[in-house]
Amino acid sequence: MKQFDSLAGKQLNRRQLLAGSAVLGGMLAAAGLTGCGGSANAAVQDIAFWHLLSGGDGIKMQAMISKANQGNPGFTVHPTVLAWGPPYYTKLAMASAGGRPPELAIMHASRVPGYAPGGLIDPWDMSLLAEHGVTPESFAPRIWDKSQQNGRVFSIALDSHPFVMFYNTDVAAKAGVLSANGQLQDVSSPREFLGMAREMQKVTKAHGLSFGYLGSGSQMWRLFYTLYKQHGVDMELTPGQPMQADRDAAVESLEFMASLFDDTVAAKSGDISTGIAEFARGSSGMLFSGVWELPTLKKAGLPVDAATIPTLYGTPASYADSHSFVLPRQLNDDDEKRRSVYKFVSDVLKGSLSWAEAGHIPAYQPIVKSQAYRELTPQIHYANAADIITYDPESWFSGSGSDWQTYFAENVQNVLLGRDKAADGWDAFVRRTNTLLFRPNPV
Amino acid sequence: MSSLTTSRRGAGRTAPSSPAGRRLTTSGAAPSSPRRTRDNLTGWGFAAPFLAFFLVFLVWPILYGLFMSLTGKSLTGANDSLIGLANYAEALADADMWRSLGNTLYFTVISTVPLVLVALVMAALLNVGLPAQWLWRLSYFAPYLLASTVVSLFFTWMYNPQLGLINDSLSKIGLPKVAWLNDPNVAMWAIVIATLWWTVGFNFLLYLAAMQNIPHQHYEAASLDGAGAWRQFFSITLPQLAPTTVMIVLLQILASLKIFDQVYQMTAGGPSGSTRPVVQYIFETGFTGYRLGYSAAVSYIFFGLIVIVSVMQFFVTRRRSA
Fold it and tell me: Does any domain span residue B170?
């Protein structure tokens, strides 16, 4: 009581103090509530847009949004950037299920099968997009196929971002593995590839290839699935049925991956950032990585070129995913807003040349066919990836940043570290996948 | 916390000596029934803000979670009908749930022992009367004030297999490098070491407070009888600390069972799932895996385990004090 007296003076007793703070709290809460709806009276439409691009490409995205906002006085797009991977998808699903999603969001195309059947996102109305000149023909065939679920268009791809091979042209030249046009020689078998890497190692004295994978299911999966698909085989995930996959191709791919980590061709243990750092300081000749690392590598001042991952098993294939626009299902449909969203998306697609500068391959074909894009190097050297890209097998649990990729790492990391046999690691992963396939499908 | 133990201990030894409190109750007005009702109402009024939060944010979610565990509820809103105990049946047959539960228990055992012992040793060292007490106290306790994210970042860097401080030091003195966070046999221990550095300060503080409350006469009498320092430690200090030890062990077990932050940030449950605690498994199945009903069932199984531990603890302490 004494403390209260000295604190609040004699006139104010405890009851008054409590009542006062209650009123104050109420006022603050009321102010907060009105704050939320404060801008509703403006004529400009507010469009909430969620995405997960926080690196160098996040800056490009922000520039594209600003440009679209300037060109369209009728609406303002407000981006919300969330952390890549599980946190993003968890929040997006919860916001949609809770009835307060953004009007527009970016998703990986490989994650759409986990969202569309549950009614979390709405299909696109292609006739509305056609008003802005965006039609199915605006997209490369593989990307367009991926946009659809059961015949309806659920995602509009902004790009495809394959897993590729960067290489240091200085190292490659010294190792004598460049061809006449200044690009890396073609190799078409695992043995040739290992030979080339060893030649580069002689130049760098450290490693021939950088590929950080420790603790990263995404990294292991990206390379594995590229090699697996190069065997010309498929993988199917159908709930209620065992996983359909070619065991021999999988084991061969894993064994090849494990053979890379001999501390000559590549470092035995390294995580993704260690791998990039090694390549960026010139301690290796090649880097297996997503195209999105291009700005980082360019900034490092490296003589860098790029190509798709060499075809080692006969069939060209390149693991990729797409950043795609989706329409989270709204509690109250607002036709005007939807129209603005369509306009915004078409504007961004048409301005995606700057997106290509971040390394991604634009999905919008008029950009890809433009002269300006043809002059972008090394982007143009892997632009052929769009014709050979392969997305994750479809299911509610697969896709970029999914737990399934973590399960892959759990069963395969010891194979790559040389502790387990490839066949055992693969069989364990198949068992883990089958458990998921036989569980009740939550979407 | 320390005042809690000391008052409990004090109450046991010197029961009837609380004159101030006594006079208050006896000299008050005779309890008339309208007055008591008004007092009661006032009491409830004061408790109301807390009760409202307690009911809305604790009791209701607990009950709703129990209901949810009996449904197939999914984050996407699909099939949320009642399915009885199917989730529980599935969970009890789920090898990954048992594995993550095992990881949590393993962590609890191998972290609780050092967290209690090291805290005791640190407090005993300090209590022999080193100079600059405040500096020691501060430096032992300071890590506890850091956020789990900060601690995880520190240790992730120090454990880095190529560039990390620890492996660098090891190789300088000619020892082999250790893949701290990437070896399934080592990763859990690496997390225990980080946790030990981070949270031992709290237990240390409890022990130190309890030690400083042991009356000096005991030691004086013992040294007059010719007892040496070790003898005094084992025959006076340790027995006097027994109630504190019981409390620290109980708090530590409950804290260790909650393990999630460090693991999620340092290994994300890897390598090969060797560090994934059950709380992370609940998070994964429920939020990133959409299956809220199933994850509610797993969390109730975990809850059951905590209740069992608490009941065991309760009986152990009751037998001790009886």
Answer: yes
B184 with A414: Cβ contact below 8 A: yes
Q: How many domains in chain B?
A: 1
Task: Flag if A274 and B160 touch (Cβ within 8 Å).
Answer: yes
Assigned domain for B109 exists:
yes
Tens digits of pLDDT across chain A (443 residues): 334 333 333 444 555 555 555 554 544 444 444 444 334 445 789 999 999 998 778 888 999 999 999 999 999 999 999 988 888 988 888 888 888 899 999 999 999 988 877 788 899 999 999 999 999 999 999 999 999 988 899 999 999 999 999 999 999 999 999 999 999 999 999 999 999 999 999 999 999 999 999 888 999 999 999 999 999 999 999 999 999 999 999 999 999 999 999 999 999 878 888 899 999 999 999 999 999 999 889 888 999 999 999 999 999 999 999 999 999 988 888 888 999 999 999 999 999 999 999 999 999 999 999 999 999 989 999 999 988 999 999 998 999 988 899 899 989 998 998 989 999 999 999 999 999 999 888 87
Q: Where are the domains of chain A?
A: 42-158+322-389, 163-319+402-437
B239 forms beta bridges with: none
Class of domain A42-158+322-389: alpha beta
Structural domain contains residue B268: yes
Q: Where are the beta strands (DSSP E) in B106-250?
A: none
Among B71, B75, B156, B264, the strongest candidate for a mutation testing the A interface, having the largest count of A CBs within 10 A, is: B75
> Does B16 reside within a domain?
no
The size of the A-B interface in CB pairs under 8 A is: 94
B225: exposed, middle or buried (C-beta count within 10 Å: 0-12, 13-18, 19+)? Answer: exposed
Residues of B with CB under 8 A from a CB of A: 72, 74-79, 90, 94-96, 160-163, 179, 181-182, 184, 267-273, 284, 287-291, 294
The answer to whether A324 and A399 are in contact (CB under 8 A) is no
**Interchain contact, B76 vs A119, CB within 8 Å:** yes
Class at the top of the CATH hierarchy for domain A163-319+402-437: alpha beta
User: Any idea what the CATH number is for the domain that residue B308 is in?
Assistant: 1.10.3720.10
Q: The domain containing residue B159 runs over which residues? A: 95-321
CB burial readout A287-307, b (16+ within 10 A) else e: bbbbbbbbbbbeeeebebbbb
Q: How far is A133 from chain B (nearest CA, A)?
A: 33
- How many Å apart are CA A157 and CA A106, to the nearest integer? 9
A contacts of B270 (beta carbons < 8 Å): 215, 406, 409-410, 413
Is residue A346 within 8 Å of residue A134, measured between CB atoms? yes
Nearest to A397 among B74, B272, B289 (CB): B289
Q: Which residue of B has its CA nearest to A116?
A: B76
